């Protein structure tokens, strides 16, 4: 990405806007607003220079999102290390679609991951919300968290060829082999992402500080935020760090902040198993009618991947493609097609599903989603480095997921994972959020959510003293996904601060 220098004149003040040429952009200084932490004045009060987003396109996803009508983009300057505010700075990509009517504020969005592009999400969500008051009353704003997407420096681990090769490589059977591969991956992340100092500062702890800088630079006294999936972790961490800076917050598809990674993983496997059962339960005319038949189709792929053009469908990719289609029951017809093709010896649709999940386009180029996901998790969560714990942990996972489809296709080994070889310590750990003084927030949880199971949302609503919307469906996240019950409640809250009178079931 080319970082363009600001060419428009900036005049001090809170609302001054100077219009420049389309290539130079429009520089706008609206901050500082709200409390400014000591030493960070130049960041909280910085001007943002808004330009046509096309100069920041870096992959197929951004090409589609960044060419949306009315989209404008900027770069936010933040410290790499907030403990050293006078040291190295990095750039956070920001995309905005202006409110079409009387403005309430800026609604900042994160779609999850970790590693998902908030810039692309803002464009996508604005499209889905075009008939609601959200786009009339809010600037819709998305940012790519540090290390992600259009932000610089980017987290990079494997190149495109290495990603392709890893997907079709045979499973490793021994602990030393697995650990050697995990260490090599961690080493490449360090080398290709700009060193250990970059990786030490890509966690949620630092993302929420960036988000508060963005709030101020956008000229907002208080934050309005919509977070999906991992984005709920960002929201929870922001509420802890800046409890007095919140106006509204919708958290959909919650990550339970008290759960350790092992328990979280077990619950997710069970969630996908529940979704797979629901899929087969409604699949009366399907040719693949249940898990025994499904396993008989994909098991041979471990030893003999299925040719798909000049590529191959591995067991790993088949499992990934199936999981991708279980995120939403709208994708179930695609899953039916994919499994019927597999029964006929074809793997085209399953491979496309796996490609979409892993961020690969039809040119063979990957987004940095999976690299960022690993790097962020390695500094967000405690890791196991004590070999004495490994066997017990592997047994806990095996017992907790026994008999599930995903566990049977990927049995655990008592090996140190990638994060055990990470060069920097974790900066967060599971805990009960301390959020005294926050306003009442809105949490949405879906009963059949495979990726972030329903109880996680119930627990988060209790942890944050929030209002809970329960959505009865099988899908991951619900807001702006077609339920008028969920959508109306969410929009009323964000725009008018009107909460449901009590916990709501949709």
UniProtKB/TrEMBL annotation:
UniProt xrefs under SUPFAM superfamilies: alpha/beta-Hydrolases (SSF53474)
Gene3D superfamilies documented for this protein: alpha/beta hydrolase
One annotated GO molecular function: hydrolase activity
UniProt entry keywords in alphabetical sequence: Hydrolase, Signal
Family matches, as InterPro entries: AB_hydrolase_1 (IPR000073), AB_hydrolase_fold (IPR029058), Serine_prot/Carboxylest_S33 (IPR051601)
PANTHER family linked to this entry: 2-SUCCINYL-6-HYDROXY-2,4-CYCLOHEXADIENE-1-CARBOXYLATE SYNTHASE, TRIPEPTIDYL AMINOPEPTIDASE
Protein name, as recorded: Pimeloyl-ACP methyl ester carboxylesterase
Organism: Actinokineospora terrae
């Amino acid at each position: 990405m080319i970082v363009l220098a600001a060419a428009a004149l900036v005049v001090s003040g809170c609302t001054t806007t100077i219009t420049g040429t389309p290539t130079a952009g429009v520089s706008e200084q609206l901050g500082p607003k709200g409390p400014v932490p000591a030493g960070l004045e130049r960041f909280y009060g910085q001007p943002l220079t808004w330009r046509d987003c096309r100069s920041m396109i870096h992959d197929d996803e951004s090409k589609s999102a960044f060419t949306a009508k009315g989209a404008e983009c900027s770069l936010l300057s933040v410290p790499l290390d907030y403990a050293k505010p006078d040291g190295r700075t990095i750039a956070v990509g920001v995309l905005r679609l202006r409110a079409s009517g009387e403005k309430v504020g800026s609604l900042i969005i994160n779609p999850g991951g970790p590693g998902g592009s908030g810039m692309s999400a803002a464009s996508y969500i604005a499209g889905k919300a075009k008939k609601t008051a959200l786009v009339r009353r809010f600037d819709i704003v998305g940012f790519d968290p540090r290390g992600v997407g259009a932000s610089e420096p980017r987290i990079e681990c494997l190149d495109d060829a290495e990603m392709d090769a890893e997907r079709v490589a045979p499973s490793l059977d021994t602990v030393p082999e697995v650990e050697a591969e995990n260490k090599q991956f961690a080493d490449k992340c360090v080398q290709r992402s700009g060193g250990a100092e970059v990786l030490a500062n890509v966690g949620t702890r630092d993302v929420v500080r960036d988000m508060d800088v963005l709030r101020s630079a956008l000229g907002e006294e208080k934050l309005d935020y919509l977070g999906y999936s991992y984005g709920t972790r960002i929201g929870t961490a922001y509420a802890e760090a800046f409890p007095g800076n919140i106006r509204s917050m919708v958290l959909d598809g919650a990550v339970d902040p008290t759960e350790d990674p092992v328990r979280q993983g077990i619950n997710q496997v069970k969630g996908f198993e529940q979704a797979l059962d629901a899929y087969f339960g409604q699949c009366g005319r399907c040719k693949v009618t249940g898990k025994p038949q499904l396993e008989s189709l994909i098991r041979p792929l471990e030893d003999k991947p299925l040719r798909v053009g000049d590529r191959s469908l591995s067991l790993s990719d088949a499992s990934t493609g199936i999981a991708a289609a279980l995120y939403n029951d709208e994708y179930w017809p695609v899953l039916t097609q994919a499994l019927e093709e597999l029964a006929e010896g074809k793997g085209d649709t399953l491979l496309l599903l796996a490609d979409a999940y892993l961020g690969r386009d039809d040119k063979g180029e990957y987004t940095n989603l999976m690299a960022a996901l690993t790097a962020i998790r390695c500094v967000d969560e405690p890791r196991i480095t004590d070999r004495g714990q490994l066997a017990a942990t592997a047994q806990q996972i095996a017992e907790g997921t026994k008999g599930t489809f995903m566990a049977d296709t990927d049995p655990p080994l008592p090996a140190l994972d990638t994060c055990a070889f990470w060069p920097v310590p974790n900066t967060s750990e599971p805990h009960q959020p301390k959020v005294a003084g926050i306003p009442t927030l809105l949490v949405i949880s879906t009963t059949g959510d495979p990726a972030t199971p329903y109880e996680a949302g119930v627990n988060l609503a209790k942890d944050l003293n929030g209002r809970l919307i329960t959505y009865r469906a099988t899908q991951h996240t619900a807001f702006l996904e077609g339920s008028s019950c969920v959508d109306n409640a969410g929009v009323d809250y964000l725009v008018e601060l009107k909460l449901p009178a009590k916990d709501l079931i949709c």
